[in-house]
């Protein structure tokens, strides 16, 4: 029995169709099965020197760097073995990278011009890398971007060809999808004119099949399978031209067919417009560079993604340990502590030295005071001793009946004088050593009284100019003593040598200085020619002694015009 | 060199009786010498010598001395206190301090307590006798340093009079220096001698003395008021 030919052809067509139809969905690009060999680290170099892993922590290799590197290079990648599903790699160094870094690849969209002999003349290229804006990881849901470019037709060009190729670095993986391409001529006034080329990829054969062929296009390259057709679900259903690079070791794509290549006129300006989306990455081998890593533990992670950029979830990691800087290491702190201790010890020694110096100064001061006391003791010893002896002996003499009365009267007189002299001397000593008198007011009273007594005995007029109230400031014993001696010397000079009519004593405290001025209206002295019986060193002595206690001595005098001796010492509340 | 520093008071109107002098001195030897010195003058009568302030205050007033020679350095109550006590009991008595140490502060305090002068030990008999006469009828210079202290003392605000029976106004008047007295004190502080002050103001020597005596008196009044004020507080 003979089967009806229509039924047979119908069944046959169905079978053929069934066979031809690969059954793959439009975006079944890249499998979901994990690759057979995982990407890994090839080599780590710190400042040019290779670092070998020093051990393993679980599944991770541990690289211990000997020191902080200026530059760390991590070479890594996928093994690129045959039959392996293509991957897009990304990587990050935890501790340095804030996020994943995608490896970079390129996909080209070339406009080629050929001359009448089909020889290439010149061309233009638009490459993309990375992801188009809004890329969702799926072609169907990602938005297309409109792009355009102006090109001038080079001389000798006769025809134009378009070439969509994944021919970047070998490692490029990813997709680039064109929804439409249009080329128009641009008039001299800038307006677009006639349409030179247009392709919406809606006509052709088997367009719902990834391996269908849009009209006017041909597959090209060593891996023509990289040219695909993508069915975009609607409504309305659309189709797009795609470049899919899943294999780092090949190039392939689409090219305009000979009859579709439009003729062009040299010098013409063309506007190329297209709509595309893309995700372009890379697999293969790569080197990640990190500069100036600080001390710490880092983890280098290599992640795999599908060519559409969807992470597969699995990772390869390795631990990189960078030693801490000097100041973070334990021994450093021990050394620093030791250093600090040494510093403290040194400072302590300085303090001790300073304290010793202070004590030395104190001891010197005590020495000075002791010397003073010695002097007073000496004075008492000499004066008191001598006078008392004299008094004793004279008293005894007076008792003797053999001494004539006027002689004994003389002795008694002497005894009285000695006693009186002693009393006065004692008075002076007591005044000098009494701490109560180590102040401006008591000193002034004493000097004032002394001056008046002394000047009165000479017959000259005494004038005293001291404020009613003087500040209650201390005057150290040695300063007081020196100041008094200097003033006394000045007064004695005035009485003995100046033959003055009036001798004046002025005393005042003005801005931290106690000033005493002894002046007379006598015959004056020539300070330079100090020729007096006392040895002529009186003034110089005064000057030096005043200076020794931090005071000043100034003598102003002109022969015949009187003398003024100014003594001053600093006084302060402390 | 010893000096008698005394202030004169007006000579008594009646015929000069023997001057009655008391001695307050704790050292026996000195006391003996002083008494001996006084005995050497027929016009002077030593009416008592005591070794302590307490004894003197107890015994001396009934002897009615005209002059008292008072040692500053006494055991127990000191000479300055003794002056105060005696002058309180015998307002007319003239006290002359005796001291080894020429201490401006102590001397001033004595004057403020009511003394009229001071002497430095050791002192000749003749000088002692001269000082006794001086304090009754004559004077010796008030030194510049004492005068300064007086200026300071009078510059302080006077305490309010507290004696219940005293006339407040009179006391206040008494305690304040007159302008002339102030001037005299000023010149004394500047080292002017009595005779220089006299010629400056074109007054007699004795006028200057009078001024100074009044200054002393007012000082005494003042210090008395201050001392009482300290004890009893302001009159309320």
Give a verbal description of the structure:
The complex is a heterodimer of chains A (574) and B (236). With 574 residues, chain A is α+β, with helices and mostly antiparallel strands. Chain A folds into four domains: 37-100 and 285-324, Immunoglobulins (Immunoglobulin-like, Sandwich); 107-282, no CATH class; 329-433; 436-574, Histidine kinase-like ATPase, C-terminal domain (Heat Shock Protein 90). Chain A is 29% helix and 35% strand. Chain A has helices spanning 5-20, 330-399, 405-433, 440-458, 477-497, 538-548; strands spanning 40-46, 49-51, 55-57, 60-64, 71-77, 88-94, 101-102, 107-114, 120-128, 130-131, 145-152, 159-166, 172-186, 192-199, 204-205, 213-214, 217-221, 227-232, 238-245, 252-256, 269-282, 285-291, 296-305, 311-322, 461-465, 502-510, 513-520, 552-557, 563-570. In chain A, the strands form six sheets. In chain A, strands 10, 11, 13, 14, 18, 19 and 21 form a seven-stranded antiparallel sheet that branches. Chain A has a six-stranded mixed sheet with strand order 3-4-24-23-6-7, with no helix packed on it. A five-stranded antiparallel sheet of chain A has the order 9-8-12-20-17, with no helix packed on it. In chain A, helix 4 (440-458) runs parallel beside helix 5 (477-497) and helix 5 runs antiparallel to helix 6 (538-548). Chain A starts with a helix and ends with a strand. The model of chain A is unreliable at 16-28, 30-36 and 531-535 (pLDDT under 50). In chain B, helix 4 packs across helix 6. Chain B starts with a strand and ends with a helix. Chain B folds into two domains: 4-137, 3-Layer(aba) Sandwich (Rossmann fold); 144-232, Orthogonal Bundle (Arc Repressor Mutant, subunit A). Chain B has helices at residues 28-39, 53-59, 79-89, 104-113, 125-137, 144-155, 168-175, 179-189, 194-201, 205-232; strands at residues 4-6, 19-24, 44-50, 67-71, 94-99, 117-120. Chain B has a six-stranded mixed sheet with strand order 1-6-5-4-2-3, sandwiched between helices. The interface between A and B is medium-sized, with 29 and 26 residues.
């Amino acid at each position: 029995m003979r089967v009806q030919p229509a039924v047979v052809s119908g069944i046959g067509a169905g079978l053929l169709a069934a066979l031809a139809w690969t059954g793959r969905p439009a975006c079944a690009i890249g499998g979901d099965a994990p690759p057979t060999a995982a990407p890994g680290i090839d080599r780590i170099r710190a400042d040019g020197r290779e670092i070998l892993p020093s051990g393993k922590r679980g599944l991770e290799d541990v690289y211990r760097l000997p020191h902080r590197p200026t530059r760390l290079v991590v070479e890594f990648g996928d093994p690129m073995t045959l039959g392996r599903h293509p991957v897009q790699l990304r990587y990050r160094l935890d501790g340095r990278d804030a996020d994943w870094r995608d490896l970079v690849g390129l996909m080209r969209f070339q406009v080629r011009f050929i001359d009448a002999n089909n020889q290439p003349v010149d061309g233009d290229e638009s490459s993309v890398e990375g992801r188009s804006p809004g890329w969702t990881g799926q072609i169907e849901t990602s938005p297309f971007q409109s792009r355009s470019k102006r090109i001038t037709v080079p001389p000798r060009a006769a025809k134009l060809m378009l070439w969509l190729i994944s021919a970047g670095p070998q490692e490029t993986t990813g997709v680039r999808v064109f929804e439409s391409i249009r080329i128009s001529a641009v008039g001299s006034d800038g307006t677009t004119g006639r349409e030179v080329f247009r392709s919406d990829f809606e006509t052709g054969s088997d367009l719902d099949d990834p391996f269908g062929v849009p009209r006017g296009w041909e597959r090209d390259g060593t891996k023509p399978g990289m040219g695909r057709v993508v069915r975009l679900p609607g409504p309305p259903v659309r189709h797009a031209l795609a470049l899919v690079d899943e294999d780092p070791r090949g190039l392939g794509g689409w090219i305009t067919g000979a009859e579709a290549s439009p003729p062009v006129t040299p010098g013409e300006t063309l506007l190329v417009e297209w709509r595309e989306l893309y995700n372009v990455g890379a697999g293969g081998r790569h080197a990640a560079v990190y500069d100036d890593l600080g001390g710490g533990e880092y983890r280098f992670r290599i992640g795999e993604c599908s060519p559409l950029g969807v992470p597969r979830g699995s990772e390869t990691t390795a631990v990189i340990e960078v030693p801490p800087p000097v100041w973070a290491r334990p021994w450093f702190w021990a050394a620093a502590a030791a250093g600090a201790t040494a510093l403290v010890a040194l400072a302590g020694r300085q303090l001790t030295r300073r304290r010793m110096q202070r004590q030395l100064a104190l001891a010197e001061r005590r020495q000075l005071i002791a010397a003073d006391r010695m002097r007073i003791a000496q004075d008492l010893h000499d004066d008191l001793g001598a006078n008392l002896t004299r008094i004793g002996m004279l008293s005894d003499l007076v008792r003797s009946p053999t001494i004539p009365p006027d002689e004994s009267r003389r002795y008694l007189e002497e005894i009285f004088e000695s006693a009186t002299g002693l009393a006065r001397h004692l008075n002076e000593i007591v005044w000098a050593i009494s701490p109560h008198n180590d102040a401006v007011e008591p000193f002034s009273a004493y000097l004032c009284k002394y001056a008046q007594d002394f000047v009165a005995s000479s017959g000259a007029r005494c004038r005293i100019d001291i404020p009613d109230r003087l500040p209650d400031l201390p005057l150290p014993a040695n300063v007081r003593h020196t100041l008094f001696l200097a003033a006394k010397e000045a007064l004695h000079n005035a009485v003995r040598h100046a033959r003055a009519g009036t001798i004046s004593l002025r005393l005042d405290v003005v801005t931290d200085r106690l000033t005493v001025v002894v002046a007379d209206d006598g015959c004056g002295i020539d300070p330079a020619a100090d020729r007096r019986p006392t040895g002529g060193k009186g003034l110089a002595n005064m000057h030096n002694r005043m200076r020794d206690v931090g005071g000043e001595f100034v003598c102003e005098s002109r022969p015949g015009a009187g003398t003024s001796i100014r003594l001053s010492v600093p006084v302060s509340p402390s | 060199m010893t000096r008698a520093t005394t202030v004169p008071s007006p000579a008594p109107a009646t015929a000069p009786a023997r001057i009655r002098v008391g001695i307050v001195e704790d050292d026996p030897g000195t006391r003996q010498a002083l008494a001996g010195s006084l005995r050497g003058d027929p016009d002077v009568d030593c009416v008592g010598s005591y070794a302590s302030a307490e004894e003197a205050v107890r015994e001396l007033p009934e002897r009615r001395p005209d002059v008292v020679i008072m040692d500053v350095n006494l055991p127990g109550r000191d000479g300055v206190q003794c002056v105060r006590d005696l002058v309180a009991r015998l307002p007319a008595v003239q006290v002359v301090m005796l001291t080894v140490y020429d201490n401006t502060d102590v001397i001033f305090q004595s004057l403020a307590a009511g003394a009229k002068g001071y002497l430095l030990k050791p002192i000749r008999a003749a000088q002692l006798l001269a000082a006794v006469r001086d304090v009754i009828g004559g004077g010796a210079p008030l030194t510049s340093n004492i005068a300064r202290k007086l200026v300071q003392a009078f510059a302080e605000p006077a305490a309010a009079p507290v004696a219940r029976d005293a006339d407040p106004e009179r006391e206040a008047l008494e305690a304040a220096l007159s302008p002339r007295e102030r001037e005299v004190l000023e010149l004394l502080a500047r080292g002017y001698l009595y005779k220089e002050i006299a010629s400056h103001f074109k007054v007699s020597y004795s006028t200057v003395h009078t001024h100074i005596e009044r200054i002393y008196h007012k000082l005494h009044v003042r210090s008395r008021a201050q001392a009482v004020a300290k004890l009893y507080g302001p009159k309320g």
